[in-house]
Amino acid sequence: MRVAMYYNNRDVRIEEMQTPHIGPGELLVKVIASGICGSDVMEWYRIKKAPLVLGHEIAGEVVSVGEGVKHYKVGDRVTVAHHVPCNTCHYCLNGHYSVCDTLRTTNFYPGGFSEYIRIPHINVDRGTFVLPDEVSFEEGTFVEPLACTLLGQRKAKLRAGQSVLVIGSGISGLLHIQLARALGAGQIFAVDITEYRLRMAQQSGADHVIHAKEDVPAYLRKTNNGRLADLVVVCTGATAAIGQALNSVERGGTILFFAPTEPNVSTPVNLWDLWRNCNSLVMSYAGPPDDMATAIELIRAGRVAVRDLITHRLGLSETATGFKLVAEAKDSIKVIIEPHDQRKGGFAIA
């Protein structure tokens, strides 16, 4: 089978690998659609394990079922979580699935930018979800990132009517905007450094869009009844965004750090201000299985319009182009790779 082998952000090659063989309790899934995540182009993180096949936002069709599998059959349309928790360790039992050792070591093989993937028994058991007829394969690629968004907003304790500031209006930021709107947020503000993404933020439901060069706290006070934001969601690893978030959160408010910086990045924090203003700092990573199930229902019901966020659909042979688009972070939002599409040229729909 063909795979897109990652060497670095500028070197993604189409190579041949043997189609995986499955064992008892496993599934073989034909990948129909696979989204490029912003984390796929975090070169400082990925290059340490290169060469490898990336891709974890997948939807596809079950083409082979291992002995003992009871709940899935050939022909099922599915999406699959690449990381799954053990559900029994200290962290899982306390609701901290994202730091479970099992979650951090599980994966399907070889990766979503391939024609077929093997789903290990543990991922079959607690990370494979049948897509409803109303949810397309390409919409199914959003289940995992939307699950991550759900976990983040739950940890941040977003309440109806609260004002929300999203810093970074890429795909994660736009999902946060749409989800916050669906969950009853009050005014929603979006910040970015590119006009294209600010327009997409407005289309996704932001009430106000602000260029990052502007005085964001002053804008908030002017348009939000003299107050800063109740919830600030940081969807970029840029260090400037951290300072902007700290200056833009209202007393009693929360900052959700949804995107990482590079390792060893230090940022000065005024603990006195945080203490005096009773602010909370929350981190969030991944999304447990229950959030995957919720994400499917939100997509099915149209509460989160993920199809509107797809800007490019590319064949597997164009994966390198897709990585370039996502790494540049300019005129693209969600790039979908379709491993079995033989087109020679991709197209944008936004």
From TrEMBL:
Cited Pfam families: ADH_N, ADH_zinc_N
Enoyl reductase (ER) domain mapped to chain residues: 9-337
Signal peptide per UniProt: none
Keyword Metal-binding: yes
Record's keyword annotation contains Oxidoreductase: yes
Organism annotation: Candidatus Jettenia caeni
Cofactor: Zn(2+)
Protein name in UniProt: Alcohol dehydrogenase
InterPro entries: ADH-like_C (IPR013149), ADH-like_N (IPR013154), ADH_Zn_CS (IPR002328), ER (IPR020843), GroES-like_sf (IPR011032), NAD(P)-bd_dom_sf (IPR036291), Zn_alcohol_dh (IPR050129)
